[in-house]
Write a structure and sequence with these properties.
By secondary structure, the chain is of the alpha+beta class. It has helices at 95-98, 116-121, 125-128, 147-152, 164-167, 170-185, 274-285, and strands spanning 49-55, 58-66, 71-78, 92-93, 107-108, 134-137, 159-162, 191-198, 204-205, 210-211, 213-221, 238-244, 269-272.
Length: 299
């Protein structure tokens, strides 16, 4: 489909197995942060710029970034049982998107004028100012225990324009549901990938500055879990969901629940099997998409 990233980069299809190597570039290579990817393998089917999101000299999660959209296609991370309060908003940017030889640690935005190379290479706070959109975390601080991991999620390379009705309503409830399920039933590592589906006709913030997604999607992979009650056998080892980010979207993918609170009308979330999510991603991107290596079927 015109205007969408529909190819697969050869580098992003490698089975990656190491998590270290700070001498490697943080932008352009998933190898240093393969720890956050099931079997070290990123989702297949989407083309973008790999970012190993580094904060305070430690890798925290992985994102596939679209330079054109100035927004991530997805973020991938390992769930840890949350603790503590939500951190204060301290929004950051990725220096290596602006300067290839820059340090790989994310940096807080300055209080004054932002360097023009940064403005051109990625989203900045001004893009969201006086818009009708909130900062929609793909990797939410809610899904982490370590305070520094939580702080690291406040980077605009992990954020997309998200309507309040989604961000504070059904999507927030879905994130909490995932939190409770994984905390109670997942025995070892749980891998989560959360991403976006673009409009068929592009929507933008501030005159082609930042692409607005029509839907958000999320999936987890928990290969090792405890005995489940019968009503939860369909959400392990995998779970998937698509959420509306536009109250005026049609209902083919996610129907509207008119019994929802009025402020959340049209921002519903639909829970579905992983292969159903991948079918919708394939249809929208026009290419084969696989979120987890071998459908999360190996320990």
């Amino acid at each position: 489909m015109a205007g969408l990233h529909t190819a697969v980069s050869a580098a992003s299809l490698l089975a990656l197995t190491t998590w270290c190597c700070h001498s490697r570039a943080d932008v352009g290579d998933f190898t240093p942060c393969a720890y956050f990817l099931y079997h070290g393998s990123p989702p297949k089917g989407l083309l973008g710029v790999p970012i190993c999101q580094r904060y305070l000299n430690q890798y925290r999660f992985a994102s596939l970034y679209s330079r054109r959209n100035r927004a991530p296609w997805y973020s991938a991370y390992v769930f840890t049982r949350p603790a503590g309060k939500r951190p204060k908003d301290d929004w950051k940017y990725e220096p290596q998107l602006a300067y290839a030889k820059a340090d790989g640690n994310m940096v807080s935005f300055p209080h004054g004028k932002v360097d023009q190379n940064i403005v051109e290479s990625q989203a900045v706070q001004l893009d969201y100012f006086n818009s009708s959109y909130t900062h929609g975390h793909l990797n939410p601080s809610l899904h982490h225990q370590d305070p520094e991991d939580r702080n690291s999620t406040f980077t605009l390379t992990n954020v997309v324009p998200q309507k309040f009705g989604s961000n504070s309503g059904p999507w927030a409830r879905m994130e909490m549901t995932v939190n409770k399920l994984l905390t109670k039933y997942c025995k070892d590592k749980a891998y989560i990938v959360t991403g976006t589906m673009p409009y068929q006709t592009e929507h933008w913030l501030k005159e082609n500055r930042v692409a607005v997604p029509e839907y958000l999607w999320s999936a987890y992979c928990c290969p090792n879990y405890t005995k489940l009650p019968e009503n939860l056998t369909n959400v392990f080892p995998t779970f998937a969901a698509i959420g509306r980010n536009d109250s005026n979207s049609t209902e083919e993918i996610v129907p509207i629940d008119w019994g929802e609170k009025k402020e959340f009308w049209g921002y519903d979330v639909r829970i579905m099997p992983l292969d159903t999510l991948e079918m919708y991603l394939r249809d929208r991107f026009g290419t084969f998409v696989s979120v987890f290596y071998n459908q999360c079927s190996e320990p």
